[in-house]
């Protein structure tokens, strides 16, 4: 019997779902190297490989067989070939630009554990998709809003969420789309560097975000009375500002967000919140040329920088802070703790704070490989994001459950039956 790769699900799965990988038809205790490859939409190659030894029966099940030292990872890691994917081009991050097409994952089995791959024994391909069957993707161009709405299959209304990314700009849809697969109506909202929106991050007007909130509150497929907000990085502090000043927000989840306004002036009616000060002298650049910017921002508790602290005590919603304790973009844990102190000092409910040791800045949906360093648009050089690949992967899996449970609880009143894994 020739060796073959057995996958479950067989040919297609959602990107954030586990994939069971096994090889059958090998010789007893045969040594092999497994390799996973994936190309993004710019044709950049990501690869991971691991060394294995088949069982006495010639079977190799990644859920039961630990990877041996010498590859991209070792130990019992059923999803290691996905989370350990690394770009061949330095400082390149895996993102999905078109959620309507899947990523194509190539899996190969080679003979032996040599430096160079031995003879090819088996190969297969698998689609890692973003849209569940029946999901509706609706481009939104109403008033000033530039966004994409994802609606789950079936008859709504569904609990509604607005999803914001960070300083990369544009309109990333992949997180919103994956989240909508779990029964939410999710609006991926662009806020700069997209179509006719401002090209640069100089100042933001909260009225634009208010238009998006009202769009969701008035949508027939969105279940009221309030909606949720999900923001990462700069998107996080924009969500805190929205929750603090706008009506109709019930739950706000931040992934490595800030409670101070960062990077651009924020205006709303007659209110102006200046950005937190930055001291470039505190940026450390290592021999590799990669910058560590963790100390670049000023402290929002001191001097004139206090004006940049967002008055989140005005918010009428519940908060969830997801924190990577090895975030090198900024001090996410400090921001979460100070936000919590401020809320409690004003008699508000204590927010949920979930901390992940070994997780870096880009806590993405499950099985996105960790990005250790990439170009930072504002600094114009590669910066380190922090994180240790295995711990970061585990954090992404757990945080995804925490975020869904938080929104199910506060937007529908029903727990989703998820429990924390860490």
Automatic annotation (TrEMBL):
<dbReference type="GO" id="GO:0047617">
    <property type="term" value="F:fatty acyl-CoA hydrolase activity"/>
</dbReference>
<comment type="similarity">
    <text>Belongs to the C/M/P thioester hydrolase family.</text>
</comment>
<dbReference type="GO" id="GO:0006637">
    <property type="term" value="P:acyl-CoA metabolic process"/>
</dbReference>
<feature type="domain" description="BAAT/Acyl-CoA thioester hydrolase C-terminal">
    <location>
        <begin position="205"/>
        <end position="412"/>
    </location>
</feature>
<dbReference type="InterPro" id="IPR014940">
    <property type="entry name" value="BAAT_C"/>
</dbReference>
<dbReference type="Pfam" id="PF04775">
    <property type="entry name" value="Bile_Hydr_Trans"/>
</dbReference>
<dbReference type="Pfam" id="PF08840">
    <property type="entry name" value="BAAT_C"/>
</dbReference>
<protein>
    <submittedName>
        <fullName>ACOT1 thioesterase</fullName>
    </submittedName>
</protein>
<feature type="domain" description="Acyl-CoA thioester hydrolase/bile acid-CoA amino acid N-acetyltransferase">
    <location>
        <begin position="16"/>
        <end position="142"/>
    </location>
</feature>
<keyword id="KW-0276">Fatty acid metabolism</keyword>
<dbReference type="InterPro" id="IPR042490">
    <property type="entry name" value="Thio_Ohase/BAAT_N"/>
</dbReference>
<feature type="active site" description="Charge relay system">
    <location>
        <position position="361"/>
    </location>
</feature>
<keyword id="KW-0443">Lipid metabolism</keyword>
<dbReference type="InterPro" id="IPR029058">
    <property type="entry name" value="AB_hydrolase_fold"/>
</dbReference>
<dbReference type="InterPro" id="IPR006862">
    <property type="entry name" value="Thio_Ohase/aa_AcTrfase"/>
</dbReference>
<dbReference type="InterPro" id="IPR016662">
    <property type="entry name" value="Acyl-CoA_thioEstase_long-chain"/>
</dbReference>
<dbReference type="GO" id="GO:0006631">
    <property type="term" value="P:fatty acid metabolic process"/>
</dbReference>
<feature type="active site" description="Charge relay system">
    <location>
        <position position="233"/>
    </location>
</feature>
<feature type="active site" description="Charge relay system">
    <location>
        <position position="327"/>
    </location>
</feature>
